[in-house]
Design brief:
It contains three helices and nine strands; from the N terminus they run H-H-H-E-E-E-E-E-E-E-E-E. It is an alpha+beta fold. The chain has two domains: about 70 residues; about 90 residues, no CATH class. A four-stranded mixed sheet has the order 3-8-9-7, with no helix packed on it. A three-stranded antiparallel sheet has the order 4-5-6, with no helix packed on it. The chain has a two-stranded antiparallel sheet with strand order 1-2. Helix 1 runs antiparallel to helix 2. It starts with a helix and ends in a 5-residue tail after the last strand. About 15% of the residues are buried.
Length: about 170
């Protein structure tokens, strides 16, 4: 469902952008017709006004597209508060981050006195760097989170864009 919403927003934004370009072409044609009656200062003011309008509308189109590009689990909005309330166990004033940093990591185990998990998340989430299924992640002891339960039904590891672990929450518990 998130992909459908993203494409709906993208198509809407693209349609608005094309309409703006067409309106700009019409204004430009009118401007060319009127320019014989205008001073150089009027033409410069008009050109700057057109540039500002196109820039503002382009920013608007990009913002509309980017709004839905940020990762969000639309299939489970009831988990929003849980994600938002998770804090790093070794730094309780810092968030574990959010859904765009969360990867299912249901295959977790201990080896050589260290905790590990293997990524089991094959979801494609807009704005989230892909981590291949089967990638082994070492979980530092200080990043193991036990105090909030986990209603997601999956063990979840929160990773930075560079692959560092923010938090790891085992499956189970509510």
């Amino acid at each position: 469902m998130p992909d459908l919403l993203f494409w709906l927003y993208f198509i809407t934004a693209f349609t608005i952008f094309i309409a703006i370009l067409m309106a700009g072409a019409a204004v430009h044609a009118w401007w060319d017709w009127k320019k014989d009656q205008m001073t150089a200062e009027d033409r410069m003011t008009g050109a700057l006004r057109k540039i500002l309008i196109v820039a503002a509308l382009t920013i608007l189109v990009v913002a509309v597209c980017a709004y839905k590009a940020f990762a969000h689990d639309h299939d489970h909005p009831e988990l929003d508060q849980w994600y938002a309330g998770l804090m790093q166990p070794d730094n309780p004033t810092a968030s574990c981050c959010g859904k765009s940093d969360a990867y299912w990591c249901d295959d977790y185990y201990a080896k050589g006195g260290k905790a590990y998990c293997r990524i089991t998340d094959d979801r494609v989430v807009a704005g989230r760097p892909p981590v291949p299924v089967g990638t082994e992640i070492e979980i530092p002891d200080r990043k193991l989170k036990f105090d909030r339960g986990n209603p997601s039904g999956h063990a979840v590891v929160f990773l930075s864009s560079g692959g560092s672990v923010f938090c790891f929450v085992q499956a189970g518990g509510v």
